[in-house]
Amino acid sequence: MTADPRLHNRDGLIDEALAAARARYADSHPQSRAAFERACRVMPGGNTRSVLYHGPFPFRAVRGEGPWLWDAEGHRLLDLLGEYTAGLFGHSNPVIRAAVERALARGWNSGAHNPYEIALAELLCQRFPSLERVRFTNSGTEANLMAVSAARCFTGRDKVMAIDGAYHGGLLTFAQGPSPVNAPYPVVLARYNDAEGLAALVAEHGTGLACLLVEPMMGAGGCIPAEPAFLAAARALTREAGALLVFDEVMTSRMAAGGCQERLGITPDLTTLGKYLGGGMSFGAFGGRRDVMALFDPTAPEALPHAGTFNNNVVTLAAGAAALGEVFTPEAAEALFQRGEALRARLNARFAARDAPYLATGLGSVMTLHPRRADPAQPIARPEDLADADPRLRELLFLELLARGHYTAPRGFIALSLELTETHLAAFESAVDEVLDTHAEALGCAAG
Ligand code: PMP
Which CATH class for the 94-327 domain? Predict the structure, then answer.
């Protein structure tokens, strides 16, 4: 039952619409169902990446090209999900492909330094204001673990402050409080966009606090942007307390040539990166102040270890250097940001005009469609503000968009790739309109 009284008498209609959408999905994906059953025989729940699961069995792709994906049944889908931001370059960028092929032609697994690591490190340090020195990892999770450990070693303090509801990787998940599989750091959770609350918590834990780990926009937490004043307070408070400010820019680094930190004009002590910056290959990086990163300088006698067989993987680093140097130029970053801002504004205008129970939140090219009406009296400042969203409407939109050839995340997440043109986005907006038309009665919104 929905908590929204306007939808109360529509509960039955919503249930029916969702049951029909699920049945249609199941009927039109027989090969995917068979693959799921096969996968379940060797992987728990047929799964090796939790976020990809959805009922009755998950969508799977067998091919990608440009902005398109094809499923096992041969349906072609426009990819709006963009691999949760790692797919910024689409599925077949020729510049990245050529760089990978050139690297492969020279052999891989040298067990030695290679030219690509310098090239990518130079590009990152030139572009991101906080990066004086950088080191590579294999994932964003690892980058965050290293940054947090670096902060603890540098300050000689124990506690890690993070944001309630945030996601920083499989071992640093605070979606419903700390996840039981988290790395065992002593954690203090702060409320997002609550500068006063943050000040009180820092005052309480200040002398034991190693760092504050925070995203400039909560990504998995619902695409909720930070208020600049909140991050400015975070900057000042951590500095006064002698703790390090760590920006997790794994998702937000795409918001400008130098990441969200450049757009905001706020420079953290450490930054973590991931996703698209490896050109679409497994990637992570952490970096920042020279004195903090010097902890890992192996020319120093007391250097801390930071090991990793694949930290300088040639495929990732060659792809990343070409991607950042030749494809995702500062101009391309700005254009993509503006394209996303415009799309989000158009979607919200549509939802408002029809009084549809959906709302797009986010920043630039990354957004989430939430099953909740916009309410100026209740802005979305933190994940708990979305608690009354109806999950059935989220699933209905996902399945109905999929049926119309548009792939988003089941949770409504969208990350635009460089391959998506205005024509593609217009087609997506028409598909959204069609879903609202089809279910106008169940959704309690005006017909188009
Ligand atoms: N931080 C943020 C903000 C993320 O969105 C993610 C991944 N979704 C991670 C860290 C973890 O990155 P990875 O999946 O590469 O480990």
Answer: alpha beta
